[in-house]
Amino acid sequence: xxxxxxxxxxxxxxxxxxxxxxxxxxxxxxxxxxxxxxxxxxxxxxxxxxxxxxxxxxxxxxxxxxxxxxxxxxxxxxxxxxxxxxxxxxxxxxxxxxxxxxxxxxxxxxxxxxxxxxxxxxxxxxxxxxxxxxxxxxxxxxxxxxxxxxxxxxxxxxxxxxxxxxxxxxxxxxxxxxxxxxxxxxxxxxxxxxxxxxxxxxxxxxxxxxxxxxxxxxxxxxxxxxxxxxxxxxxxxxxxxxxxxxxxxxxxxxxxxxxxxxxxxxxxxxxxxxxxxxxxxxxxxxxxxxxxxxxxxxxxxxxxxxxxxxxxxxxxxxxxxxxxxxxxxxxxxxxxxxxxxxxxxxxxxxxxxxxxxxxxxxx
Amino acid sequence: xxxxxxxxxxxxxxxxxxxxxxxxxxxxxxxxxxxxxxxxxxxxxxxxxxxxxxxxxxxxxxxxxxxxxxxxxxxxxxxxxxxxxxxxxxxxxxxxxxxxxxxxxxxxxxxxxxxxxxxxxxxxxxxxxxxxxxxxxxxxxxxxxxxxxxxxxxxxxxxxxxxxxxxxxxxxxxxxxxxxxxxxxxxxxxxxxxxxxxxxxxxxxxxxxxxxxxxxxxxxxxxxxxxxxxxxxxxxxxxxxxxxxxxxxxxxxxxxxxxxxxxxxxxxxxxxxxxxxxxxxxxxxxxxxxxxxxxxxxxxxxxxxxxxxxxxxxxxxxxxxxxxxxxxxxxxxxxxxxxxxxxxxxxxxxxxxxxxxxxxxxxxxxxxxxxxxxxxxxxxxxxxxxxxxxxxxxxxxxxxxxxxxxxxxxxxxxxxxxxxxxxxxxxxxxxxxxxxxxxxxxxxxxxxxxxxxxxxxxxxxxxxxxxxxxxxxxxxxxxxxxxxxxxxxxxxxxxxxxxxxxxxxxxxxxxxxxxxxxxxxxxxxxxxxxxxxxxxxxxxxxxxxxxxxxxxxxx
Lengths: 363, 555
Known about the structure:
The complex is a heterodimer of chains A (about 375) and B (about 550). Chain A is mainly α and about 375 residues long. Helices cover about 75% and strands about 0% of the residues of chain A. Chain A has a domain at about 60-300: ABC transporter involved in vitamin B12 uptake, BtuC. In chain B, a hairpin with a 2-residue loop joins strand 14 (about 325-335) and strand 15 (about 340). The model of chain B is unreliable at about 1-15 and about 525-555 (pLDDT under 50). Classes of the chains: A mainly alpha (about 375), B alpha/beta (about 550). The interface between A and B is medium-sized, with 26 and 44 residues.
């Protein structure tokens, strides 16, 4: 099968199938799928306001998607993005509240380091357990999500909550650390775009991260070793690549990327740390990486798609009587078809594109 | 080429009976690859019919069609004269076709009886099935020398006995036509001989046997007729009595092949590798290496013969720097007179390469190559830390050029460094590994099974390169389960059995029979010290001193 069919046509058809079944579900509850689609598209992409939110959500998903992808290349399934991103938020908060930053340009790199370091540390423990003790990383990272939630709960209620506040949230960050919104950049060139939307400068950081991961995985020695180890541990040993080293480093990078998400949602949007700030973006990252084939370009596209689904879903709940839960159904269908049922579309396509072939190939 | 369609009656023909198997115009394509092209094949009833061909010639595909794994794109199959559409393996079994796979399909923690009735139970209760199977097995064992303890658990059986269970499974399902795919790859010479006796017995009882192999010696020894495949086509069917290994090899490859390795006498130089008292106990507490002493000099090839699973793999992996987790490791290994670390820092594969030890591993697909990586990425695998390939970022252009040049020198086909390793045939994959490991002129080259699953043309090439490397001064430690290969390439032969070196012989002064005895643990002074306490799965068959051998073939 040609490459374009593999990379573009297969996910596209999977997506269409997911939407088709979603349409049936909407029909079944007595609503119009056409109307619903219209609301979603107008709400998420029809205005700069919609785009502002779509890009904001996409930024979150880029980071968590990259986190899953880097671990995946090392053959590790990091399901702990949720917890790592939560810890990233804690890192951002501590950095921003501890030092009176004069300007966001200084605060941003420091906050990014804090976010990445906390996310990485949260991934380090499962990585270490996997590398040294053989504890399965899927299990440990899931468990660490719960530990992270409990930890954040404790820290927010008992340590970071300002005296007298009833709200389990940290104090507001100093004004100087507030990140410029994309609106502000557009205003510089005299264009009014996305007023009152949370899309901020972190989106550009996310684009940098995409490029950075591409460089890391396909252009560096470390990336070479990560990919080799991910494909075959036995071969990696033969080549003198240390499994312990690669497991730990890949998970540190993965956790760091998940943690980096916090400069978008905590520093860029909420401007303080609240409970459950991650809102499931860590899990969406798994779907984003799956759909994006663990490649930065694919992750960018998939993150935009899920950003659209998030924002469009919100609009759907706002303007129609379709319940907000339905958007979860649509997301689930998209994940099901693009991730789990990938072969369902791929195999017939392969037959179409190479007419004489059957499944398999000769030895 | 010879017309294959009409095969004269052969073996013990029953002139009136239709042929057991008749294939007409069988074609099968996988995408652009034409695996089988208009194959005609007639297998007479009551004969042993060999099918030979290089890897990728289409033998396995053809047999998979016969056993119902693939549907042919075109063509007709007749079994005992009746046209038959074999849609799945159940149809094949009902038609009396049985298959013994190269990799056994046995449940390892089941007994022999349980394995035999698996899928052929008479009812929901096992007891009656087991009783019937036990009675039948006793009969089969008597008739065909297929003795196996019905109550034994598969894990406790030797490889040769496990294979008998596979044959029993087929016979229990009333197989009349038995297909064996590369059956001797895992057997000692004595076990192989026993298998051939079984096959002859089955033939004499009127069964038809199709034997797929790439070992010409076996074809000459046991078959009545032989069909040769090349690139998906059936190029000839001949009576075994009227052909020769050289003719078959030429038919397989399509040109004249040098079956004997031409090599000048070795001129050994300085000692390169010295091993003293090397012991290894694995994580399960099994002693894999029981005090190995070996010496290897520059410019010589030391061949290690032995049935697989007797410690050769452990030795190679230990020297190569990636042993299985070991519970206990002792002894000394010196490279050029200096002790090298066996554990800890510097004992990994990177440390070994830094000492000038290159390694063509036994399993090129699981170890030597990353199958999803491009050929050019694989060309630096293990040497990717070399500053030659760039500082912060890898210089992919330089690696590509290097890989392309290397592939050209090793005649890798197709000559395209951008293809993933999995797209190359076995022989060309092996050339990719050999090129990478040999082009650096290492001080010591470890070679495991250099020609396993490699076609004849590539075998010839790899053997020649090994000799060239030897003459350029590299010390080569060769491990192979192909006794012929060890005898053809080595300047000295050490035989390993149960983690020990049973003895060293000079290739000119020994015979396959003598080596076979050593491989089975029998020394000049009697059996190996604790041959009785050999771990399960390594127990050899009683050796057959009268092992016949027509020498001269590398395969």
